[in-house]
Amino acid sequence: MSSVIVIQHCQSEHHINQLSGGWTNTPLTGLGRKQAELVAGKLKKLINGDGHEYVLYASDLLRAKQTAEIIGKQLGLVVTVEQDLREINNGVAAGKTKDWARENRNLRTGNVFDIDYQEFQDGETWRQFYHRVCNCMDRICNWETEKNLIIVTHGGTLSYIVAWWMNFDPQMLATSYFSASVGSISVLTQNDFRQNVLAVFNDTSHLMALM
């Protein structure tokens, strides 16, 4: 394996209905489906003729799974669903409105990032989330084959996949975050020195057709 292409899922119903993210499970909007078609077209041009086989993974939450299915249809790839590619578990806030979430989150102990902060009852801490993502990536990556990965996931998960690729220790997350956009494409590769490279981050140029 020489590269991982990471896609942030396209516009979902929770984006327009003021619902919390996390494990809230909403489908793509009509616009989101159009965005996914454009993502698929961009990927088709990106990987066409590069000599590699690709495996397509997606979070099992609807907004990521549906994005991946649209991509898979254009690329001729079957989607492998992986629960551990979900966004951070927001516990009791899943399915609730953003206003409800703001009023019912656990109190913070300070105004700096705390990796062990559990924002919602029954949810994950950021450390637990990072360990989940790292363990998932270690498991699904096969370094001995020429099959590269395409992963459709969520904003927080995408950030932590990049951190995993760059070999971040958990404590480094206190001062770093990779903020991408809906429908974006990021590419993780290795150079001739076997260094891990963030080659492309948050490319949304393919979405300009919808502007």
Automatic annotation (TrEMBL):
**Entry EC number(s):** 3.1.3.-
Q: Which Gene3D superfamilies match?
A: Phosphoglycerate mutase-like
Coiled-coil zones:
none
Question: In its keyword annotation, does this UniProt entry include Hydrolase?
Answer: yes
For this UniProt record, the keywords arranged alphabetically read as follows: Hydrolase
Q: Which InterPro entries match?
A: His_Pase_superF_clade-1, His_PPase_superfam, PGM_Phosphatase
Please give the Gene Ontology molecular function terms for this protein. Answer: hydrolase activity
Protein origin, superkingdom:
Bacteria
**Pfam families found in the cross-reference section:** His_Phos_1
- Give the protein name, as stated in the record: Histidine phosphatase family protein
- What species does this protein belong to? Alicyclobacillus fodiniaquatilis
